[in-house]
Amino acid sequence: MSVSDAQSQTRNDDAGAPNTTALAATAGAVETTGKVPRAVGADRAARELELRRGEFELAAQLGHIRTMTSAVATTAGSTAGVTLGRRQVTRLEIDRLRAAEGFPDTLRERVRTVGTAEGAALMSVSPGRFAQLARSGFIVPVRFYLNRYRTVVWLYLAEELRSFAAREPALLAGRFPRPLRAGLEAGEDWRPRNWRCRRIGQLLHESGDPWERAAIAGCVIDPVQLAELVADPYERAYLERLRPDLGQGRPESEAARTAVQRLLVADHPDEIQWHRASLDTLLMAARRTRPAPRPGGSLPHAGDPAPRYEERGRAPAPAPVRGHDFASGREHEHGHEPASEPTGPTGLASESTAVAHEPAREGGRRGLLTRLRVRSRREGDRLHATVRS
Fold first, then answer.
1. pLDDT tens, residue by residue, 253-290
2. How many angstroms separate the CA atoms of 331 and 320, rounded?
3. Short-list 116, 108, 125, 120, CA closest to 154
4. What per-residue string of b and e applies to 120-136 under the rule 16 or more CB within 10 Å gives b?
5. Cα–Cα dist 248/199, whole Å
6. What's this model's pTM, rounded to 2 decimal places?
């Protein structure tokens, strides 16, 4: 296998195709017992599986522990659904894992994470060669944290490092390929991008709600670009409410929050186009399912037509991009072109359209300034009519 083929295969396998066993439901248990099997919360499940909370969360994300959503009805307009809701583990799943050979050491080893020094020792390479492989995208991190100097420390699965070392021994020794050295000398670093893609893929596999899936795809897009793709302010607000938290924990200091925030936003042109195309596809699917909730009205239902909101002016359409589609798991070529604003009889935007840019307040009423402007305009018209008479 060539270096480029190995790099492409590793990126696709590790970053873009997370383990789908996390979606496996307890249908067999339901059919056997005729009722939903008993389940326990994440804290109790972690204790019974002899895992730390971080190990349990990682095992659930990777699909080693099958989880289910607590039986809470999810309605349109709710702020938490499948992805953001509480996860539980059935008693049958706990018994299955405890009965496995080598429990709990085998399960712990599958979620063991290592840093650069320990990972290099595990692969029998120097820390410098390990960093080259990671920055070039051959090794995909699974987590990160900030040390006391606010430096990002990437963590990798020990199981994946051993598998890579056995699969690609030619990359562990000798001179690093020239094209990859040129990218590293130019400052190329695939670790943040690969981690984002991996985490988004995990969340998409866990969620079945169309609007949640759209919020997941759009959570790494810059807010300015997100406003270009989603012109309707109510849709943007709905996506914000369903937005997942990709980071682990909430840093206390402002400097730490800034460092983490840089890792949560797509920053490479190819990656940005990738996520834009994915969001556009998932957003169209969500609109077909139900419209976003709006103030002053009833909750939308599945099958209701999504209200149209046209943006003033016309934005240039990006060139078609070929990338990975989170919605279908396939590579595709996709472009996006927002619609233009409807105009009045004179060719200019109508006054009602301009006023509609201000969101309605509680109960569907307009804001105070809008009401004052309307009242002032009416009084002026009345005074003008009086003077003419």
1. 788 888 888 899 999 999 999 999 999 999 999 999 99
2. 12
3. 116
4. bebbebeeebbbbbbbb
5. 11
6. 0.66
